[in-house]
Specification:
The protein is an alpha/beta fold. Helix 1 (27-38) packs across helix 4. The longest helix has 14 residues, at 97-110. The chain is built from 5 helices and 10 strands. It has helices spanning 27-38, 50-59, 71-82, 97-110, 165-178; strands at 2-5, 21-22, 25-26, 41-45, 63-65, 85-89, 114-119, 130-132, 135-143, 149-152. The two termini are 27 Å apart. Strands 1, 4, 5, 6, 7, 8, 9 and 10 form an 8-stranded mixed sheet that branches. It has a two-stranded antiparallel ribbon with strand order 2-3. The chain has one domain (2-178): Spore Coat Polysaccharide Biosynthesis Protein SpsA, Chain A (Alpha-Beta Complex).
C-alpha cells in the first residue's frame, strides 16, 4: 500500500501545499496519478489540510485522517492501522510510478524501513535538499517497525520538495520544460 502524506502544516509555504497548482493541476493529483500506477493508494490528511480533503472528496480519492500532531506521530498511527507501507510526501510533484515501484521492490526484498536518497552529484544545482552522509534525503520511504536502510534512487527531480514559494515557482518552470500539461477530461 502507498500512503501520500498530506496532513502537514505547510509552515514554510504559508498555505496548504497539496492543492497548489503545478502546470495547471493540483500537486497532489500529479503525485496520486503516479502512485496509483504503482499500487493501491490513499491520502493521509489532517485538520491542517481541509482544502486537500475537499479535493479528495471531489475527485473520489480515498483518504484517512490522522491527528496532524506531527510527522512521527502520524506515521505511528498509520503503521498501527495499515501495517508496513510506502510513504510519499505530498510535495514531490515529479515522482514517477517507477520510483515508487523500485521502493516497493526493495521493501519486499529487505523487509526493513527504507529511506529514499539521491547522490548529491545527481541533485540539480538550484536545489537545497536535506543532506545526510553525502546524500540528499527525498520524500519517498518504506515504513516498517524495524530497521533503517537507504535506497539510492536515480530520478534527480525527487530532490525538489515544494516547501517554499520559490520552489513552487521552480516546479512550474520545470513542468513547462518537461511539457507537463493538465490531462484533458
Amino acid at each position: 500500500m502507498i500512503i501520500i502524506l498530506a496532513g502537514g502544516k505547510s509552515r514554510r509555504m504559508g498555505r496548504e501545499k497539496p492543492v497548489l497548482r503545478i502546470a495547471g493541476r493540483e500537486m497532489i493529483l500529479w503525485i496520486y496519478q503516479q502512485a496509483l500506477m504503482a499500487d493501491e493508494t490513499l491520502v493521509a490528511l489532517s485538520k491542517n489540510t481541509p482544502k486537500t480533503r475537499e479535493l479528495c472528496l471531489r475527485e473520489g480519492i480515498p483518504f484517512v485522517e490522522t491527528s496532524g500532531k506531527g510527522y512521527v506521530r502520524d506515521i505511528q498511527i498509520l503503521l498501527e492501522e495499515f501495517g508496513p507501507f510506502i510513504s510519499v510526501s505530498a510535495d514531490l510533484p515529479f515522482i514517477k510510478a517507477s520510483d515508487i515501484a523500485l521502493m516497493e521492490r526493495e521493501f519486499k526484498r529487505r523487509r526493513a524501513s527504507l529511506t529514499g536518497i539521491l547522490p548529491l552529484s545527481a541533485v540539480p544545482k538550484d536545489l537545497n535538499p536535506l543532506v545526510y552522509n553525502g546524500y540528499a534525503i527525498v520524500g519517498l520511504n518504506a515504513v516498517a517497525e524495524e530497521g533503517e536502510e537507504f535506497v539510492e534512487l536515480s530520478n534527480p527531480l525527487l530532490a525538489l520538495n515544494v516547501n517554499t514559494p520559490g520552489e513552487l515557482e521552480l516546479a512550474n518552470r520545470i513542468a513547462l520544460l518537461l511539457g507537463k500539461q493538465e490531462p484533458r477530461k
